[in-house]
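Hi X.,

You mentioned you wanted examples for the new student's onboarding notes, showing what a folding record looks like when two proteins sit in one file. Here is a clean example. The first protein comes first, with its sequence line followed by its structure tokens.
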Amino acid sequence: MGAAVRCCILPRFGLASTLEVPGGDFFAFTPHVFMSLRIHNTLSRGLEIFQPLVPGQVRMYVCGMTVYDLCHLGHARSMVAFDVVQRWLKASGYRVTYVRNITDIDDKIIRRAQENRETIGSLTDRMVDALHQDADALGIERPTHEPRATAFVPHMLGIISKLEQRGLAYRSCDGDVNFAVRGFEGYGKLSGKSVDELRAGERVAVADGKNDPLDFVLWKAAKPAEPDEAKWDSPYGLGRPGWHIECSAMGCELLGESFDIHGGGADLQFPHHENEIAQSEGAHGKPLARYWMHNGFVRVDNEKMSKSLGNFFTIREVLEKFDARITAAL
């Protein structure tokens, strides 16, 4: 056989990963023979040879969509990118457990349901169905598990309880439960910044009752105007989970307290993934994920495509004008 062929197949999706095929043609590999895979690990900020925690098995968690509206091209990029990753791993002989979550409780979901005069369940069910239609149209395989956050509230409360016992969570005067960022020694290791350099991100609102502006909410106290379906009983009173704790609970419950790959869009690196690391490792005392992978943005006029900026195109709008294979390759 000839020299190893190094193939970078993911840059179009924003994934800085290098795949090395031992000898021969890129397309003519033998199935079920583990191949050398190097991943750009956001945590170490360098290329690393992929070595799963359990030989022959890969457990991968990717942050999915918040289902209050139709998916846009930015969502498509993330879904396609990690679909390529899990397909490659399977073709390389690994047994892959791939989890991509659905956030089905959130401030935006509550607000949109109220605007539409429909229940939260009705809205999120419609949007999940639309997500599946869009993903199917792009030829994206379904993940092994697609958990909804609302099914894992007891698991979230269990993590919060552990954090409170370890002095990493505290109850605020407004009824929320917050994570004490400065109590977690490793905070900032994913973003590569010290605590003093970091600032609150898009969903980390600085609010009354926090001991530090960087502290983030684990449990939100219920508000009178919110519907009953957005409220759960807890030791802290009626309320609902914060956004970050949702992924910690779903990932650890379905894949274990430590797993191989955690992925998502580059915009999730801070604060969402940084906060996931803090609360998961703070509760369990072990690394959450060995490798962190982040896909790049779809940009419009040199700005990230996002619903908040209003510069987005839905997947189905694009598919009305372009072939699905072309759209998936963007």
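Then the second protein repeats the pattern, sequence line and then tokens:
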Amino acid sequence: MDEREDERRNPAEGAAGPMGDSAVGDSAVGDSAVGDDVMGESGAGSGEQGPVGVYLVDDHALFRAGVRAELAAFEDRVRVLGEAGSVAEAVAGIEHLRPAVVLLDVHMPDGGGAEVLRRVRERGVGVVFLALSVSDAAEDVITVIRGGARGYVTKTISGRELADAVHRVAAGDAVFSPRLAGFVLDAFSQGSNSAEVSDPELDQLTRRERDVLRLLARGYSYREIGSELFISVKTVETHVSSVLRKTQLSNRYELSKWASDRRLV
């Protein structure tokens, strides 16, 4: 058999060679090389044909690694395509990879989740956002929902629950951790200005100080607060001292009552 006859009988072994691991081509970028069966903005692999493509946005690398590990157990349903630790990196990655769902942290040093939402919407990228945050403050929930997020869950969620939430928002549902839905209903039923905080004492606290205060009022130890927020115990102590000074309170009991009166707990 001559070479031309062999090529006619084995077209898969032409000039390009047999398909191997390199078959994903040059279009694969990092973790996005998962194949066309992953559901993204374009709808490739939509429905039950493949896992939902997810992009992680959080400024703590340790937390992102934890989310990846949790979702790896549900790889047939959810596939992490990429991740980012800053607003600029997130916007570029989302625009390039076009995931179906973005898991979005609310608080980041360079603008946070609201800024990611704004920039991505400006670019016309049709992805769905699901906020994933340690904060369950009403103002945080309402801010990102008004910005275009489809849901909001807290970081106490389990891996299975998170995979379910990703699928639900990808399918068009709105998803909230149990106590958070009431914030949204109240805000949108009472009008556009209902989410505004008019308490000057509360306004003087930074978002991180509010996070620390909220956990402190729930009975967390300094070490537990540090673990939850990915900060050192010394940093927790600094935030608590700052809150005590700003509120002119003297102990943890008074702080807890102050926080409860303002619905921070």
